[in-house]
Structure formats: structure tokens, C-alpha cells
Amino acid sequence: MQVAVKAKVDEAAVCCPNANCLPYNVGNAVSFRAKPLFSSHLAGSTGDTEALGAWGYQDSYFVLNVKSDGSKYAMMKGARYSISGKPLTGLVNFVEEELDVVIDPNGHTFPACDELRNIPESNLGSEGEAELAALLGDEDSRISVEPVERARHGTGHTQEDMYDLRTGLIRFRLPDAVVWPRDEGEIEALVSLAIHKTWCLIPFGGGTNVTHSTHCPKKAIDPRPMISVDMKLMNRVLWVNEEDGLAHVEAGITGAELIQSMEKLGFTIGHEPDSYEFSTLGGWIATKASGMKQNKYGNIEDIVKEVNVVGAKGLMSHKHKMEKTSVGRSSIGIDLKSLMLGSEGCFGVITSAVIKIWPLAESRSYESVLLPNFDAGLRYVKDLSKMRAMKPASVRLLDNDQFRLGQALKESPSGLQLLRNLVSKKVGCYMGNISEKYIVCATITFEGTSDEVKIQKKLVRELASVHGGILAGSQVGKAGYDLTFAIAYLRDFALNFNILGESFETFAPWSKLTQVVEATKKRIHSEHKSRALPGVPFVCCRITQLYDDGVCIYFYFCMQMSGVAEPSDVFSMIERSARQEILDNGGSLSHHHGLGKLRSSFVPQIYSQGYMDSVVAVKEALDPNNTFGARNGIFQ
Amino acid sequence: MQVAVKAKVDEAAVCCPNANCLPYNVGNAVSFRAKPLFSSHLAGSTGDTEALGAWGYQDSYFVLNVKSDGSKYAMMKGARYSISGKPLTGLVNFVEEELDVVIDPNGHTFPACDELRNIPESNLGSEGEAELAALLGDEDSRISVEPVERARHGTGHTQEDMYDLRTGLIRFRLPDAVVWPRDEGEIEALVSLAIHKTWCLIPFGGGTNVTHSTHCPKKAIDPRPMISVDMKLMNRVLWVNEEDGLAHVEAGITGAELIQSMEKLGFTIGHEPDSYEFSTLGGWIATKASGMKQNKYGNIEDIVKEVNVVGAKGLMSHKHKMEKTSVGRSSIGIDLKSLMLGSEGCFGVITSAVIKIWPLAESRSYESVLLPNFDAGLRYVKDLSKMRAMKPASVRLLDNDQFRLGQALKESPSGLQLLRNLVSKKVGCYMGNISEKYIVCATITFEGTSDEVKIQKKLVRELASVHGGILAGSQVGKAGYDLTFAIAYLRDFALNFNILGESFETFAPWSKLTQVVEATKKRIHSEHKSRALPGVPFVCCRITQLYDDGVCIYFYFCMQMSGVAEPSDVFSMIERSARQEILDNGGSLSHHHGLGKLRSSFVPQIYSQGYMDSVVAVKEALDPNNTFGARNGIFQ
Known about the structure:
2 copies of one chain form a homodimer. Helix content of chain A is about 35%, strand content about 20%. The first copy, chain A, is an alpha+beta fold.
């Protein structure tokens, strides 16, 4: 079944999903301009602002254009990404074919929200506001009860969040106020005040969560005033110890700021989650984040050496911090740092951390390998995983659908055509069974000394040939890595045409990997079918992190929801079914996104009663008044 | 000042420190034979038994012999170690010279304990004993209230422990009973019973701790009956998943048993703490252990994927365990596994763990490098640390004193003479400033694929030449690694001659490393001098683990204490001073031994009040009746 979707189009700036862009802001009752998310404390701050109700920077978004001959092409606005400003002639066709829909440039079916509705007054009260003002007391306003701020701070980046912000009808409870503390002392004072006033504090980093972790608990569950503690002003690098390879950094710093400030000194943290432009150090710790280069640099638990947290019992910290180094690997009793990793704001406000820094890699390069099918791809990356510590910094395996999506995001003439030439040329020589329908692609990033990179490249290439792979070169490899950041903007573009999309991830052991991928895809298709939804669902995945015992699988899926009642809820239900399928087949509840409120109801399936009771007991012990009552994870 | 020390000597079996050997057992009122520490559950179990009141196996210990010409030599009995059964002609001279003492073969000044004294009756009572018997209820006795068992289970391997066991006068409170549970179900029942009866449970693994962690709290602090829970019968490998490289293993398995059972399947865990012959998986987790090959295989936190713990709130576990795999790297809320690492028995009984296993290395070899002095050695190992993930599995740097001690433990003609030849031959060519007085040695173990080992060897050798090093070959390298296990027996030998010894360790960041080593050595000398103790203290160290941000330093020190009142206490005070010096200079409270009760009083120096309060709150929450009341770490 093909479904016609209407979209208003003109060559100038159309179908822009960013709420700050035309046409959404024209005549709006409420300005959607969020408080600038980059402060000026750090030299080099760009003053860039983030969009509200859409992923990413305000200046970057996809638009649909129509040529004089009636053909449609997409384009990413702005100049931040490698594909920005280039006509993407394959994208619209790809979407139409894969989802079995027609993108109609003359219609625009998704609501163009022009105001936030249904936002109740702040529950904080003028007395509370005055007390906060006295605490933070200064000229520039660091307290807000504005609906726009509250909307931004009470949401993250789930499909549901974006849907609500785009419709302007927010169905979640929002915080009553937002504060921007400037140092650890202010946070200590804030926590004391909150305990005294029986307020609830919800720490806020980059707001990139996809778990509802920044949603406020329903009033029926917790009627207290909720205050979002935005950490963005705490973005200073407190010290750097080059000899020990350590830095002490405030928790509100974004990945972009941190990377920039370290690069100036000749260092890197090596931590690049897809969200690093916006997500923060404190958020990474609270969520137990993972970066794309974890093969080399480790995950956040390997990067963070110590954490300062202001909890209900005061500041939890190591005392020697002022000496500008760390206790390193130590066996010194109960490890509260590890307890904070994955705590999702429930134990306190993470104020700073001592992190590991690496000298900038001497050499960086890319490679890509085409393989006949997903199974061959899995065998290939499994062999790469056996390189253990010598694995390339990033190895990602795109399944056939995701690979073709990536090709559709290339400037015309499409990358796919170039690849066709490449494959057909090489296939003739040594491979008879390769087909565009099954082909998959591994994109590889190398970082290290020249010697390391050389050795790794050699192995990567040798193994490719073992598994029937064709080297597709560094350009495809680099494009694959970079595309991660641009691809995140696609969902908002698709929503213009009533296409809802979401990503979700899991860890799967090698022994369950094929099973998890196949069952999850199948389940989404069957859920879609059983509801008689329009079109065909598009589900694709990539393997993003390799471990000795398994991998992270990152799924994208989207569906055309025109004419479907409560589309966001229906979509959510299908996502939940997919998660259940993952669990049933041996995948984990989350590799790096965390639980938040979105996945907390699955917890009894994965932990024993004694485990859950113990976690609740720890929470009650550390935070007896539930001051940090975001109710993420098990605490809902 | 030279001090004459007397020791009884004969060629047959003399000065044997092992309480189970002649002459100690002759006519003993109490047999020192401990319950066999290896059970027969695992095929290949050797039935070897551990000594009591001395390190290691009963058949392995040093003796002093006198030749017909009156010259003295040492020998290690048994056949377990590379030096066993060989005349060590240099050792006695080395000790005499370094400590400025004379070892007199005609005297034996240290008490030859022939009974345990001062051991009060078990406080458990016959009713309690009967209830335990009903719980474990079977033919073979798995409950004991015998003084010998209680003495073994209430001690570890500190200098104080060994001193007390050797004198037979135990000054610590011992457990009232020892039980040997056989499975997780029994432990759950035991914990329930203990809560009901208000008993205190103290988990016991290999009993190799050097922190007083298995000492019972004084009666004035806690009058409850104390029950030691010996895990040795829980030593089964529950499953192995070769594809994911995982095994689920009961916590009472010793390193030796685990290594043996994995090797049969073609795997290794790669975890080799100095104590691995006796220490257990559960003990490693509780202590947050580190192994000698951590460069390659990681520390226990990298090896353990999941932990089953029976706490006061029941069994804490992941539910999917029966599917024979693990959740892998995941972000699924509060991580109780990490909380158990370093918990030192205070949260429950660790019953099993899912651990990572590696295919046996394709290639293993050794190298050693002589360097002109300690500073050059540090620069060398720092450069090796920059190999990061490609570092050899083990790199250890012996300072001059420890290197010479190692040479004194070689069969005559001494290894030192061979090295003299080597050095003098090479020095002539390119190095003018090398001297036996300052020379240090790096011993290196390689494990990996043939390619990895080849690359690593090349780098190790290139860097050696950069730092003025001389390659001393694989034999010295292997001997250095193996010596670790034999050297542990030296302390008991020395005690025969009233020489008290101890080892202790710390993590020091690179930026504080030289400072920590120098200040610690200096402090021991000054403490020794200020007390006008006999002879000269011997203090040496080695660097044992390399990290990006620093190293583990492992110190040995010993002193002749003839004629000193309360020698064990005096020695302890000096050790405490050394620890304070370490902290004052930027070292950590412990790299891998843990806190136990020995180091708990230092804790307020390293954590904020909020940190300590939080830890205590977590303890009270997880174990409200303090059923696991060993009072290790912060809880004393």
C-alpha cells in the first residue's frame, strides 16, 4: 500500500523541523529560543544554540526541495557536517521505496506547532522562587520558570519527547523551575535548601537522554516542586596533569567543549558518543555512556577516575584532589564512584570528575570493507574483535538496509553507483555471490601511533579477504563515521511526513547475536502488520562496539503513521515489543542509554528480588528524603 | 652493630618454619594440621595441604644447612619451585651483610611454638552448634569449633598473624566456629539462620589476606558469636561458554584450581596475584585483587562480569545466568557488582561469579633488562607504559636491593657472578656508568599471538637501548617472574632468626613516584634509627603493575628484632609510619591488598565526611543487623 504524504515545499527553507526556524516561529506566542546551551566560561565557546523540539543545532536540519522538473531532493542546511548544503537526490526515493509511501511536496501533514499548550503554572511559588534567587542571587538570571525552559528541561530526545514538543502538547509533567548553578558550593547550598524545603532536584546535563530520565514523576506519585538543575555553567577544566594524563573537569562541560579544550593542549579524551556535541561529562557518568571509539579509549567507566557528587549526606569526594592527581587503580574499600555510574541522577548531583586524557593520536585514518552479507560481516567483526587490545578505535558493521540508507545520504551521483562499479569490477575477479540486496559494510577508524595503525590496517585487510570482503577505501570509512552526527537529524525531517522514528540499542553476546537481530526485526514487522499500519516499517541496525564477549547493536526503525490514531503511543508500544524480544533472545536491557523511566518496568525481568530490594535500600540510605527523586531505573 | 642470632641446624630438616613440619610437631598437644584446603570436587585436585603459621604448602620451606667446612647455605625444601632443592650459597651472606647481623647456626632464638595458647572456648554454644549441624546436616563434619581451625580462620598472612601463630599466643579474637557450606542454597539458609540467631558471619576464601580482614571484632565491640564461612567446598566450574569467552564459577575456587580447570579446556583467566595458589575467586572480588599480568588481562574488575552475592536481603543476582552467558557491558541502573568489589565481606557472601576467559596464549616468552639505576629504570618502564594496550603482559622493575636479593636466591655459582660477566663485557662497549651498587632490573613476560609477542619484544628491546639498558635474556626474566612465588616463603625462614618482615604496596601516580619510593625508604630507616633497633633495616621495592597514570609499588622490608621487647608491635608501628609517609607523598592507601582492619584508621585522611557517611549508610541499608560484621574498611 502506498500512502500519499503531503508536505509544503519551496526552495528556500521548507519542511524545517527545527522549532526555531521558519515557519514555526512566525507569529509564535511563545518563543522557542532556549537558553544558550554553551556558556562563555570557556574560551572558544561558539555561542551556538541548540534547537528545541528537534535534534541538534538550530542551523542544521534537512529540507525537501523540488526541482523545476518536479523531481525531489533533500538537503541539509547549514555547514556543520560533511553532507551539509549538498543535494541528496537519493534520499527521498529511498524513503519512498523502503517505507512504501509517496512523499508529496504539496502537502505537509504534521502539525507545525506554534505554541506550547497545556503547560501548568510552576508549582514552586513566589516564596520558593525568592529563596532560590537569594541562594543564587546575582544580576544575570539563573532561575527560570518559563514554559519553554521547563519544556526543554523536562524532556530528552525520545520519539515521545519530540512528538510532544512538535505538537506543542506536552503530556509529561515538567519541572517547576530550572536553575543554573555556577559551582560546587552553590550546589551544596541548593541541596541543603531542597532538603529543607522538601523539593525534588533533577540534575540536567545535555538533555540528550532517550530514556525519559528528565521527565518529572507524575504529581500523583510525587506532588513536590521539581527543580531541574542545569549544569551547563559548570563547564570549567579545573586542572590538567599532563604527566599522569589526567584532568579534573566540571561535570556540566559538553563533549564538544571538552574535546576542544583538550585538543588545544594536545590531548583527547577519546570519548565520542553520538551525542557528544551536546551531552555532558556528568550526563555520561549518570547514564554510563559509551563512545564510538571505546575499542581504544574504553567506556566512561574506564575514563572516569574519580567523581565528586553532592548527595543528601554532603559532598562525596576523595580528599587529595587539590594535589592535581588521582589515587589511580586502588583497593580502598567501598567504591562510590562505580555506584554513580548509571545512577541516573538518583543519588545526587555530579559536580566534577577526574578523567583520563590521552595524547592526541599520532596517526588517524579510515578504511571500509564491503562483505557479501550480514553473516559474513558478523564473522568478520568477530575476527576483528579477537585483535583484542589492538582492535581499531572504531569498527562498525552496517547491515544492508543501513548501508543503503547511508548511500542515499550521499551527494549525487550516488555513492551507491560508485560502489556498484567498484563491486562489479572486483567481483568479476574473485567473488560470485555478492549482491546489492545483501551486501553489508564495515567502516573502520584507526587511531594510534603510526606503527599501531600500520599493523591494524594490515590485519583488517587480511581478515577482509578471509571473509570475502572488498576494500572500499578510506573515504567510505570516514563518511560512515561522520554520518553518525548528521543522521541524527533525519528523524525530525521524517516527522514532517508523519514518519515516526527511533533508535534503540542493546548488548548481545556473540552466542546470541544473530538471534537477537533477526528476532527483533521480525517482531517489529509482525507488530506493524498486526496493527494494519500504513506502508512498511524500516528497521536496520549496525554493530557499533566490539567486546570480547559480544557487541552493541544499534537499531533504527521508522514507520509511516498517517491516519493512525495516537501515533506516538502506538509507535512506543511497538518499540516496547522490540525490547521484549531483545530480552527474550538474550540481549540486554540497555548497552549505554540506561533505564530512565522508559525501561524501568523491564527491570524485574533481569534482576533477582534480592538485587532490586538491595538497590532500593541503597537509594533510601543515601537519599532518605528522596531529594533526587527523578525515579529513574528501578526507583519508579 | 652486628647481632649474633642463633639457630639450630642440621642437614636433614632444620629451621623449618612450617608448623606442620619437624621440629614443631614433635609431641605437640594440638595438631596444627589444618583441614585440607583443596577439596576433591574438582578433578585434578592434588590433595596438597597448606601450612599453618607459615606461608604456603607444607612441603615447601627454607632450611639452613652447614657444610663440613662450616660455610652456611640455604635450601628450599620440596620440589614445587624452580629454586627448590638447590643449595643457595649466597642467601645467608646476603642477609648477614644487608641487615648487619650474623646468622648463627648453633642458635635458634625464635620460639618454636608447640601449642596454641590463650584460645577461649567457642562462644557458639551447643544449641548453636546443633542448629548449624541441622542446617548442614550430613556425615562429613562441615562444622568445627576446634582451636586450630578457628586460629587459621581468624588470621591471614600479616606479620602480626604469623608472629602470633608462631608464638602460639594469639592476641586476636578468633571465630567461634567454622563452617564449610557446599552450595548457594546452604548459604542462603545460613544467612537466614544467622539473622535469626544474631550471629555474625565472616566469609573466608583463601585466608591469604594481609589486612586483618578475617580477624573478628573485639568482644567489647561486638559480643555476638562469630562464624567463619569457609568457601573452599564451593569450587565448581558451573558452566563454560567458549564462544563468548565466559565461565560461571563458584567463589571458593582457588586460583590454582581455576587455572588448572581452564587450562584443560584451552583457556586462561590471566589473573595471577602472587597468592594465586591459595587465594580464591571470591576473595579476589572482596579484596579487589590485582594480578601480575594485569597489563594484558586486566584486574579483577575487568575479569568479573557478574557476581552472585547472598546478602541480608537475599540473593543478589542477574536472572539470565541459567542461559550460560552474561549481560556484558551494560547500562542497566545501579551496579551492585561494582559495590561488591572491595567490599571485604561486609555486604554478604559472594557465592559465584561469571568471569572472562581467554584462549591460552599462542606464544609466551620472557626478557630482562638491566638498567644503570632506578631512575633510568623508571624512565624505561614509563616508556613501556606508553605502549598502552600493547604493553607486555607483565613488566616489573626491581630496585637494586631487590634485584640483588633475587640474585642471592640463585643456585651457586650465583647469578650475580654471571651478570657481572655479562655487564662488564657489554659495559666496555657503550656504558661507563653502570655499577652493581645501582643497577636495577626489569623482568618482562610476554603473552599473546606470535605477532604480538614479536612486536612487543622489538619495542621492549629498542626502548632498553634508549635508556642505557642491557638485555639480560629470557632466563633472568622467567626466573624473576617465578621467584615471586618462592620468595613468599622467605619471611618465615627469616623469622627463625628473629628477623621480622612484611610486604606492603601502594599505587603512585607517575608524578609522585620517585618521591613516594624515596620518602618511604627514608622513613623506615629513620624510624628504625630513632628506636635504636639492632642491625640495619632492609627495604626494597619493585614496580609490579603499569598503568597509564601510574604504577603499583610493592615494598618488602625486614628488620632484625633480637632483644627488642614486643617486636611484632614495634614492627607494626614502623609499618604504619611507612604508610603515613606514602599517603603524605601522594601514594594511595592500597593498590590491591585492601583496607581490612589494618588500614581502616587511615580512611578519614582519604575520603570526605560525606563519602564516609554515605558508605556507612549503604552498609546499614544492605545489612541492617550487621550480620556481615567483620568490620573491614570503613566500618571498624
